[in-house]
Structures are given as C-alpha cells and as structure tokens.
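fyi for ur records
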Amino acid sequence: MPDITDKIVIIGAGCFGVSTAYHLLERGFTDITVLDRSPVLPAPDAASNDINRIVRSSYSDIFYSRLAREAISAWKDREIWRDTYRESGVLVLGFTNDAYADKAYQNDIDLGATLNRLQDAEAIRNVFSPDVPTASFENNSGYLNKEGGWADAGQGLSIMLEMIISLGCKVLSGKPVKCVVRDVAGKTNGVQCEDGSIYKASTVIIATGSWTPATFPDDTAGHTSGLSTGGGRQCVAMLQLSEEEAQIYKDIPVILDLYPETGFYLFPPTDKGIIKMAMHLAGYTHMASGISRPRTVTDDPVNGLAIPKDNVYQLRAQLRKYLPKLAEKPFCNTRLCWYNDSPDGDWIIGRVPGDPSLILATAGSGHAYKFLPVLGRLVADTFEGTLDPNLAAKFALQRPYHGVDGSRTGMAVRELNLEQLCTQDDLRAYSNET
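which gave:
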C-alpha cells in the first residue's frame, strides 16, 4: 500500500486530474502536486471548462447509470457546489427505436429513477410549456428523466480546484510537461516541464485528456487506441436569446436524441440567455506527426473556435426538428470541444504495464464531466490497489475491445479539414433552410 507521505504528481487540472487530487487528499495523502499547461485555470480550451454539461443517468451500461446517480446526489449538495447543478430534467428521445436507448431506459427503471414514459408526439409536447413553440415530434417516442439536467462545467471545475487547494494541494499553472522522467531501471520517478524544471514523484498520474496521445506518445503507444477527436458530437453551436425569449424557454428540459446517427442534444438557456447545442457523433481527428491532437483557440486565436460548415447546417437542421423558432436565429458562437476517446467508450484508468509508478486516467470519451464529484475515486482506488477487479479490467489500458461505443454506432471519424471551417456568414439567421 502507498504511504500517505508519498509524492504524487498529477498532470492535468481537468475533471480527471482535480477529482483524483480531491479523493486522494480526502484519504489523507499529503504531498500532491497538480501541473497544468495553461497559465489560467480552468484552462480556457479544456473540454471540462464550458458553460454546461449534461448530467444524466441514462446509460445502456448500468455501471455508468449507477455511478451517475451517485454523482447526481453529490451535485445536489449546494453547500459545496452552490448552483452548479440545475435539475431541469432530461428528455430522452429514441426509446423503442434504439437498443442503447432501450437499455438506458430499463437501467433507469431498475435503479428507481423518476421517469415519465412518453409514447407519442402529444405526450412529448406536453413536457413543454404551452408558450414554447415546439415542432410536432411526429413519429417520436421517449421518456423524461426528472432526476437529471445540466451542470455549469466551468463553475464546477473552479469549485473543485478551490477545494483541493484548501486541502493543501499544490496547483501550478503554466507548467506544460515535456516528458516523464525515469530511473536507470525504467521506473517513473518524476516529470520534466518544458521550462526545464523537474518534479520528483513516487507516482505520476497522467490526466491530460485529449492532449494525452500527442504529449506522451512513448508512454501511451501500444497501450491504447484512444483518439483525440473533436467534431460531430463535439461540434458545439450557441445562440443568444432575448430576455423575453429566455423567459419562454427557461423551463425546458435538456433534450437528448438517442436515435441512431442523430445524437443531437440541447440545453435550457443559461442565466445569460445562451442556448447551447451539439451532436453526439464520432467526430474528427487533427493529425500532427501521425498523432491526433487538439486544435483550439490557444493555437489559433482567430479561427480556433470554428467548426466545419456542414456541422453548422446539420445542427440548425436538427434544431428545427424540435424548436423551429430558434432555428431562425443566428448562432452567436461555435466551438470544437476535443475529447480523448476509447473505441468502446469506457474510460482508461490503470497503471502502464511495465511501469507501476505511472498511471493513466483519461479517455473520458465525451461523458466524464457529469461524474466530477466521484470520478477521482476510481483513480484513487487504482492508486491504492483496491479497485474492484472487474472495473480494473473494464478500464485497463490493454483491454480487448469487443465492440464500439453503443451511443455512436454506424459513425466514422473524419480528419478535420481546415479549409471547410465555418465563417460568420455561415452562422447568420435562416428562415427557410434545408
């Protein structure tokens, strides 16, 4: 068992990194350092720093359903999380038409979630206030999970950063790590930053999200086929409501369409009247030296937030299927949100084979943030050697991949074409677009 005085270095101050630090500190470990490349925390281009993230328990894998319900219970503690979590409910569309949605529904039922089954278009429309101009929802079915909603992702991450600092964690921003340092026997014993500084550690935990494969190619090669991807389901568009419109739409639920090859989701308006939408698709790669790496506003301050044009039109077409009046408004912003994906959608949490002092905690696969209050427990259990063997196998770096992420079947990853990124003209309002 590790000693509570062991030096632990965590690379990355996103949801995996800060949640891991928190759970280790809660267990009494006293010498934890978190290093992050960004001079500002939370990092402006981190996937876990956003205006909102869906908080849902509707998973086809009951492990995630159960863990999500535990996370939701934690989110409700307003003394800790203040108003980070908003329980708007989650409208899940696709029930009886998709195996993933069917299993997710059954898991929610089995775990005692408060659900309203919606078998026809009228039942779905009745979820919304009469003042909300919805589409017909013809040929749709689904259910409303009242025990879910969304979280202000940036606020939640900031709160957890504050918590770990108050517990004695050393959090150092503007410290991009160049490489892992090893002793003559090949065992990890620290990290070296790009500025030449070295931080010694008995254990290093890499929690660098979509930057992992490109930043640590020698440490991840051969251990995971996770990809840094950033489009489709991670292509985000936003629109600004007027005060009057915000009042009309303020009580809508999160809309999550699980129909195959659709994957559209939309949030209620934020306190600033912004509605965000995206699509849960396979996404894009951005290859550099044979490895996919993120391309963000940090790399390109002018066009770093732009998404492919076809995704802009796709998002607007999907929006028209549910809330047609909003589809006539201009988009005010877009963003490519980069994730590190595993082929099966399960996270990668485990020690690197042959180097027991190095742990990977990554491959959030677009569904890690909702677990922020509890996610780090899995990494802490891995560190202490107490993780359930079945979960250790589920998250293992060298696990066999028997299938693909069930929420993204029939989808293919594409390379990002920088010549096809949207312009301001593509974001303008359309009254009649096909």
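The chain is about 25% helix and 25% strand. thats all i got for now
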